[in-house]
Structures are given as C-alpha cells and as structure tokens.
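Project standup — Tuesday

K.O.: blocked on the structure for the chain from last sprint. Re-posting the sequence here as requested.
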Amino acid sequence: MRIPSAMPLLAENPIVPVVVLDRVEDAVPTARALLEGGIKSAEVTFRTPVAVDCIAAIFREVPEITVGAGTVVNKEQARRAVDAGAKFLVSPGVSKEVAKAAAEANVPLLPGIANPTDIMATLKWGLEVVKFFPASALGGLGLLKAFAGPFPQMKFMPTGGVNPDNLGEWLSAPFVPAVGGSWMVSAKLVHAADFAQITRLSAEAIAKVKEIRQ
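H.V.: unblocked you, prediction finished:
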C-alpha cells in the first residue's frame, strides 16, 4: 500500500484550518476569507451532511485553496471526498480501510494517532507524518516529545487544543511541521458570516508562523 506523502502539503501550509460547515453557501466565502488572510488550505470535516457539497464548491470556486476532508472514518467518505475534489484526507484515528482508500485515490492521508501502537501501524503504510489528536487532552507537547524519541522518522501535526497562545510552542518543535486548528475559523464566526474576522485571525496566525520560523 502506497500513500502519497503529506509533507509537501504541510511544508506549504504550516496551519491547516479545521472547518465545520453547516451551510453550503458559507463554503466559498469562508475559503476566500482564509485565503485573504494568507492561509492556503482547509480541512472540511465530515461532521455535517453538506461536507461533500462544501468541498466541491471550494474546489470549484477557490482553486487557490488546497481543500481536504477531515473526520473521514470509512472508505465511502474517503471516496466521496476525493470525487468532490479533496486533495488530502484526515481521519481522527487509525483505519486501514481509510488508508486503502487514500492509496487507491493517490491522495495524502493524515491519520490521527494517540499512542505508540498507532504510530507503529502507520509506519507500516510508509507514512512520514501523522495527526496527533486530541493533542492537548492527551498530554500536549510533553507526550509528543516522548513519542518523538522512539520514532525519530515520524513527524506530527497536533490538532485539538491548538490556539494562538501555544502555537509558538508547538511549531518550535522540530518534529512538528504544521498544526491543525479552528480558532481562526470557528463555527461561531462562520454562522455569523464574520468573514472579516476570519481573515484577520488568519493573517495574525500566519504572521506568528513567520515570526517563529524566520
């Protein structure tokens, strides 16, 4: 099973927004707001029934955004997401079914890991970067440092509890190429159609990344 590496994606996108959309009409303006703030990717989650339509709308109308699908838990979702235009897949846990679907579709996969057993399973698939989820609840950077010791070949994208206050701490770790987060594109902001605020928070986040990694 060969799954394309997600490292090129994360090298270009040190912040991957986790986007929850309840209405298709919010998809394009949300993506444009992120783009205006300097963020060029979006992980649209499968937590809502309109996820596929939202992915398709962003893929069609905002091609500058690398759109992916999150919370992918089975092969059917994976295939529907890719058919709609998703360029990468993110899952909350380790699923061989989803991994096979990613390999068949030739798209990168970021499976969620929570322990060494998960990491060992993903190493068998040839992955070099995985999602660490839920990052803060599991123990934060301290636990991730413990994982990095026995698995120096693996990189991690922490998601869950990442925010502007700890962004610098996460991105300063050599084994963290990118983070996932929703603070710049919360459901509250999307529901309120406060796209200017999404742009502002996105720009602040990108500026902080540049400051950390200059």
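K.O.: great, moving the ticket to review. The CA atoms of residues 82 and 102 lie 9 Å apart. The radius of gyration is 16 Å.
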